[in-house]
Amino acid sequence: LWRFGYSARLLKTNHFRTAASNTSFPAVWMLLAQYSGRIPGPFVVVKKNTFSTMPETVEDKANPELYSPHPGVRGMTLLDREAFKRTVVVPALKVKKEIVNSLLKSLKQLVLQRPGLKRVVEDPEDEDSRLVILDPHKIPGFSLGESEQQVLKELSVDPEVSRYNLELTYENFRSEEILRAVLPEGQEVTSGFSRVGHIAHLNLRDHQLPYRHLIGQVIIDKNPGITCAVNKTSIIDSTYRNFEMEVLAGEKNLVTKVKENNIAYELDFSKVYWNPRLSTEHGRIVELLKPGDVLCDVFAGIGPFAIPAAKRKCRVLANDLNPESYSWLLHNCRLNKVDTKVKAFNMDGREFLRGPVREELSKELPLMKEEQKNAFHIVMNLPALAVEFLDVFRHLLVGEPCSAAALPTVHCYGFSKQEDPAKDIQERAEASLGTSLDGRCSTYLVRNVAPNKEMLCISFQVPADVLYKRPCPDEAKPASKRLCTSQGFSEEKLLS
């Protein structure tokens, strides 16, 4: 045993002594190997009488690897579908064809249930009989238990279990099984992706990149309707919210159509931002709106907030700095017949707030009274930067504050890596606004973006003392002095 480098301390442990006391030397060696991590557990607990007396092969054993592709595909980078073929031995019952259905009902828990594989096949030796394929994981010894044999007896079926050579091809394996067989053992297998119309959007890890073209083709093969697979090759640009991508497999057409919350959108995925994981959040915010409300979307993208809001008979001002997003926003407004209800802008977010939004607020807020049901909403969905834009609301308007009920509600998104993300985003929002939001805001966890990184939405009504700048009481002062005193400089300080 010392030849294999095992410590004497291992031999002294109660766990090992108990296990080894009733075990033969070869099994002890296996136990030691398992204990050290060199051999996985499923290969250790083995009893010879569990299996048939035929020569042992991987196919004969009812282990988790039964439906794995041929081991020769390991390391493949260029997809060869023929290389995945293999034959496995599975249990089967010979049954007269007229009672096949009865047998399937009686033994449904034991019958093979794998999608894409036939449970009943023709008997090559008897045209009046069929072979019912059983699940080898549930028939480990190729023999049935007493209860199952009693069922067969009642159906006049021979209880002897036959061995059937089942041919498996590339089409029979799931994408996870294919990728697990191809990638180096022990490495993470990612078969998940975001679907954007006919496009599968993947975020591959570094160790998967040598296999990226194969992975892309497998995703296309195994997901009907997917004709293009792409991989993100850079982080999202915080200015235009798009990113570089590589087409891994399939067609290179990245103009696609998606449907979200029963609304259709068209876009060029290589030039604009679209995230299907935000559909629930888009719907949540839109559900807050009522007909007649005003929505100002500062970072509108192609319109997932703006267009459904317009369909709810809200008045909408939608803006995006990215010219491509602005162009697709106009296109989607026309596509959904709301182009007359949405005013679209192609501006910097700050300029949009200081220009069209301020103008709309100045016009609408004085008209809103306590008893009115209409509300003013401002959506700021740029999680990487939106909180930093909140300082624009400081003294955005001049005059006497409107009623508290009419103050605009802001829905601002942000990322957080802190242990208390809700507290973090509130503190950052307060720093930008220059006031406390305690008791005046709510935070909503949108989704987990990455390990220890959350996306949140903080919603609040802009406090009147933040939004409004009261007019200077002494209008007779020179304009320069009125400006300075309104900004906090006293006349004495100016004279000094």
From TrEMBL:
It comes from the Eukaryota. It catalyses: guanosine(37) in tRNA + S-adenosyl-L-methionine = N(1)-methylguanosine(37) in tRNA + S-adenosyl-L-homocysteine + H(+). InterPro entries: MeTrfase_TRM5/TYW2, SAM-dependent_MTases_sf, TRM5-TYW2-like_MTfase, TRM5/TYW2-like_N, tRNA_Gua_MeTrfase_euk. GO terms for cellular component: mitochondrial matrix. GO terms for biological process: mitochondrial tRNA methylation; tRNA N1-guanine methylation. Keywords: Cytoplasm, Methyltransferase, Mitochondrion, Nucleus, S-adenosyl-L-methionine, Transferase, tRNA processing. Signal peptide: none annotated. Residues 193-464 form the SAM-dependent methyltransferase TRM5/TYW2-type domain. The keyword tRNA processing applies. GO terms for molecular function: tRNA (guanine(37)-N1)-methyltransferase activity. Belongs to the class I-like SAM-binding methyltransferase superfamily. TRM5/TYW2 family. Involved in mitochondrial tRNA methylation. Specifically methylates the N1 position of guanosine-37 in various tRNAs. Methylation is not dependent on the nature of the nucleoside 5' of the target nucleoside. This is the first step in the biosynthesis of wybutosine (yW), a modified base adjacent to the anticodon of tRNAs and required for accurate decoding. This is TRM5 methyltransferase. It comes from Piprites chloris (Wing-barred manakin). The gene is Trmt5.
